[in-house]
Amino acid sequence: MAENRAEVLAGAAVLAAAIGFVVYATGGATSAATGTYELHASFRSVEGITPGSDVRLAGVKVGSITKLVLNPQTFYADATVAIDKAIQLPDDSAILISSEGLLGGNFVELQPGGSTENLAPGSAIEDTQGSVSLISLLMKFVSSSGGNKTDTPTP
């Protein structure tokens, strides 16, 4: 009888922990969705970015990517970002895809401009920079360093 009671208590603790995780996960998602406004941007490449990726300003998360679709007319990736309403960006701000390091993931970085006018909700950020492939950078470095060798020794 005591063994059954211990098993029931352990099962109840596991169930309570699972419910706690679900409440925490959904609570974070709903609080992030409220108090935001949408901006749009078109990127040549969004490699490494998915809906839900962080949008950061000065290294601080201020929003997230909510939608990524391919524009069939421009062949660019159109992104929709949800930004915290407390953050009012100048209309000449830039948005770019940055990397956390060699082995880290990618995130979207906002760089505020110097304009006195702010971006209105639903407007587009014109100054964009897509992701840069590390492999293509390494290939450019290898191919350019191979061409600098000379066969004749220098005196």
Characterise the protein shown here.
It is a single chain. The protein has 155 residues and is an alpha/beta fold. Helices cover 29% and strands 30% of the residues. Mean pLDDT is 80; it is low at 28-32. It folds into 2 domains: 1-34; 36-134, no CATH class. It has a 7-stranded mixed β-sheet, with no helix packed on it. It is extended, with a radius of gyration of 24 Å.
Quickly list its features.
2 domains; 155 residues; single chain; 30% strand; 2 helices; extended; alpha/beta; seven-stranded mixed β-sheet
List the helices and strands and how they pair.
Elements: H1 2-33, E1 36-43, E2 54-57, E3 60-70, E4 77-84, E5 94-99, E6 106-111, E7 127-129, H2 134-146
Parallel strand pairs: 2-6, 5-7
Antiparallel strand pairs: 1-4, 2-3, 3-4, 5-6
Concise account of the structure shown:
This protein is α/β, with parallel strands linked by helices and 155 residues long. Helices cover 29% and strands 30% of the residues. The protein has a seven-stranded mixed beta sheet with strand order 1-4-3-2-6-5-7, with no helix packed on it.
Strand content: 25-35%
Q: What sequence of helices (H) and strands (E) makes up the elements?
A: HEEEEEEEH
Poorly predicted sequence stretches spanning 5 or more consecutive residues: 28-32
Which structural class is indicated by helix and strand composition? alpha/beta
Tell me about the largest β-sheet. Answer: 7 strands, mixed
By DSSP (H or I, 4+ residues per run), the number of helices equals: 2
The radius of gyration computed from the alpha-carbon positions, rounded to a whole number of angstroms, is: 24 Å
Q: Could you give the order of strands across the largest sheet?
A: 1-4-3-2-6-5-7
